[in-house]
Fold:
Amino acid sequence: MRHTISVLVDNKPGVLARIAGLFSGRGFNIECLSVNETLDPTMSQMTLVTRGDDQLIEQIMKQLNKLIDIIKVIDLETSDYVGREMALIKVNVDEARRSEVLSIADIFRGKVVDISPHYYTIEVTGDEDKIKAIIELFKPLGIKEIARTGKAALQRESKERKT
Amino acid sequence: MKMKGAQIFLESLIREQVKVIFGYPGGSVLDVYNYLYESKLQHILVRHEQAAVHAADGYARATGDVGVCLVTSGPGATNTVTGIATAYMDSIPIVVFTGQVPTMLIGNDAFQEADIVGITRPCTKHNYLVREVKEIAATIKEAFYIARSGRPGPVLVDLPKDVLRESAVFHYPEQLTMRSYRPTYKGNKRQIVRAMEEIAQAKKPVIIAGGGVILSNASKELTSFARKLSIPVTATLMGLGGFPATDPLSLGMLGMHGTYCANMAVTSCDLLIAIGCRFDDRATGDVNRFAPAAKIIHLDIDPTSISKNIKVDIPIVGDVKEILKDCLAIASEQKVSKEPHDEWLREIEDWKKTHTLNYKQTDTIKPQFVIEKLHELTKGDCIISTEVGQNQMWTAQFFTFDKPRTLLTSGGLGTMGYGFPAAIGAQVAFPHKTVIDIAGDGSIQMNIQELATAVQYQLPVKIAILNNHSLGMVRQWQELFYQKRYSHSTFAAHPDFVKLAEAYGAVGLRATKPEEVVPVIKKALATPRTVVMEFVVESEEGVYPIVPAGAPINEMILL
Structure:
């Protein structure tokens, strides 16, 4: 099962390397990762997505917690959370398909952020399923390039924790 | 008052009550060595940086204090890696200080530059690159705290040359605040109660004592606990000495080369109480057929050890000494019947009698015989280190360890070349104790240069080389599992170990017949100098029992 794990770390050099090294050294898999400064500049927030059975996820959580620079680890799968990522998609637009591209972007509440005679770059934000869906729709039209951010995720407030 | 970084460094070590540094100088740490020249800190000059780390590690294992070493940048630093990984696998508290090229040169491929912080990230508990002189003191404080607290381990501190040369006001922090590191010491009360309920109901309980018992100084508590509740105790390699091997409840070591009764008891038990062990594959064999009928209680300070290899029913995270104290408190309130596990203990007694550890005496020297005699002639009152391989396993089997911190051995990493420098470290800590490295002819040559160190500091370390002219454990595996194809496991050339000892200024002794063993050991023990004893032993001798890799531990090949 996929798990989104939120990791609060000391904002120190080498922390990302420690986490990356932990995952590679122990054969854990990182599917996506984002790192940002928090309001407190001495801390960084990482959000990573990994995959594994319960025992493996438990081990990943414990191993992360064990790293000295890590302040807090939350498996967001145990509670409700909001997760979003952003994608920039450069789509092929020949004369006939321009409106099709625009209407797909519109349906997904995407924005055209760059235009050239042959390509539109669409910015779209959403959860993984939404990003996946828009990419699938653009594929037949011809995607030149994609750039995606990692996932940013926060626990929802005032919701009971799942048991 | 302002001090140079190098002075701050040494002053910080003194504040941490460091008494001895194992080290080797070089360009990047010249400033430290310049002040060390007039320091009250003892410095042991080794002959290879790997040995400095093993010696600090041996010092730490023997004393329970943090071992310290100091080396230069680049090759000095990279030479420490095996030593650090050895300490990491066995959770030994050491702090390794490495010199580094000046900060402005870092990343430039400067002379003797190595990214040692990057290299050692996966084999240290934590590591640091100190970027400013004013950070030195606080970093050292943190490094020692991390090394010795929680599950102990090695910490590396990388010190660039310019940082050591700059000046700052020395201030050693009294208090430490780390928001991201707070080890758990007290076990969860409810879990402890649950565990004690299970223990009260168990018909066939067994305790596995791991290295955590030694690290947390919990031998006394474990011994009272096991005796009070009449629970038999087996030990992992790292746990030997944590429970007296002469106690009737002791089963000896479990696992690949464990005793018949320990492996049978663990396989048949209905409750397994694992104390400070991490279920290494050498101890468990096939995990799917390990203690198949047992509920498992696991006491460990490191949450990652729990349910990593073996699914645990009742985990208790905390310092095993603290947890055992709480368990004892509950046990003393409970009514314990006098013979609660009589039937079980009789079954165990039968296993003990069916297959004892043994060997066949012939007219060549048997290595097991040498180890028995070492135990007999020292009355066990000594510190033993081992190398890795057959010498290590025979020591674990035939030397009866009654006290903690008397066996120094590389269990997790299995580092050949560990034993001799570790013995040097222990001898530095205890100049008047008998310290013996039980070695093989292969392993001893991996750090034999340290004879010069031992002689220079007049350390009366004894080395017992069990010379079978081969890499015995490799040879044994080839015999059993590789159709006797002895590929590169025998040595066609060896130095004359007696002459070699003499060349270094040590004493060399040799025994080639069984009747020479006792006189050689007696002479060595009576000689207050570094002594190399060479025992020319049966080269085809194997370590038995042996559990083939991947088999369950009750499927032993017995002698």
